[in-house]
Amino acid sequence: MWLTARVLEQRLFAHLFLHGTADAVEAALDAYRNDDGGYGHALEPDLRGPVSQPLHTAHALRVLDAVGRCGGQRVERVCRYLTSISTADGALPAVHPSQRGYPVAPFVPVVDDPPSDLLATGPVVGLLHRNEVWHAWLFRATDFCWQAVESLEKSHPYEVEAAVAFLDSAPDRSRAEAAADRLGRLVREQRLAALDPDRLDAWPVASGYAPGEHHFPHDFARSPESVARAWFTDDEMARSLDHLAAGQRDDGGWPILRRRWAPAPALESRPLVTIEALRTLRAYGRFVG
Questions:
Q1: pLDDT tens across 213-233, in order?
Q2: What pLDDT, on the 0 to 100 scale, is given for residue 259?
Q3: Which of 7, 178, 180, 268 has the most CB atoms at less than 10 Å from its CB?
């Protein structure tokens, strides 16, 4: 972390595991905030350049949630930004057209009239509900998420993870549990989760994903409280967490193995991936720290 992480990740790591302050994390995050209330400046590394984007702003909300600061005037400004860039049905596009002219990862399309996207909208709506934020933007965005999740027939891992992020905090818990039950059956029927890390050749990789880009039970159920935890047996979850723990490298970090534009052998340990791995392992009681 001290060798390769940005100041933001160093501050977040210190807060989560070394008793660092939330104020220091907020100060580091402010460097990425724009006057429009959104966040930019490559906060989400797949998008470079200064302009605010939904993916950057979702990342900022995850940081604020992690330090217990997802509320107040800061989030009010975020919601005004979300309102300003929403699609006609009140949801978020994956990439706003303002990104054009700045570098992006090769698999990220930039189009003039992007559609609403569950991957972009679901996690944001879930985080805001989780923190009991009330804003006019949430009404239509929540309706979009319900419609998108409940109409899924064929999906892929990242889309399912976005659906789970919404369902984990949706206010209507009975509806969320019913939707999660149906989604869990879809995940198992379509074999979207690799249930045995020792036999990965038996599990297909989703269309459009890189070779070996498998997703595991812990990717869907990041804590025991997640609605996705019920999708997997205790043995399946234990194998998944063992596989996650075994992925730690000699330098102490975890690599990112899901990049269609970078060969896996060239990848190094990444601070963001390391923080998420440690948080997941701690949520399941795999270490204390």
A1: 999 999 999 999 999 999 999
A2: 53
A3: 180
Q: Length of the chain, please?
A: 289
Report the distance separating Cα 58 and Cα 64, nearest Å: 10
Whole-number CA gyration radius for the chain: 18
DSSP designation for 255: E
SS3 at position 219: helix
The model scores a pTM over 0.85: yes
Q: Which helix (H) or strand (E) holds 115?
A: none
- Greatest alpha-carbon pair distance for the chain in Å reads 50
Q: What are phi and psi of 199, to 5 degrees?
A: -135, 55
Please provide residue 28's backbone torsions phi and psi, each rounded to the nearest 5 degrees: -65, -40
* Partners of 254 in the β-ladder: 270
Choose among 142, 113, 40, 26: nearest CA to 81.
40
List, in sequence order, every residue forming a beta bridge with 47; answer none if it has no partner: 104
Q: Where are the domains of the chain?
A: 32-151
CB 269 within 8 A of CB 285: no
For the segment 94-119, the average pLDDT, to the nearest whole number, is 94
DSSP 50-102: SS--HHHHHHHHHHHHHTT---HHHHHHHHHHHHHH--TTS---SS-GGGTTS
pLDDT(201) > 50: yes
Q: Using CA atoms, how far apart are residues 161 and 8, in angstroms rounded to an integer?
A: 24
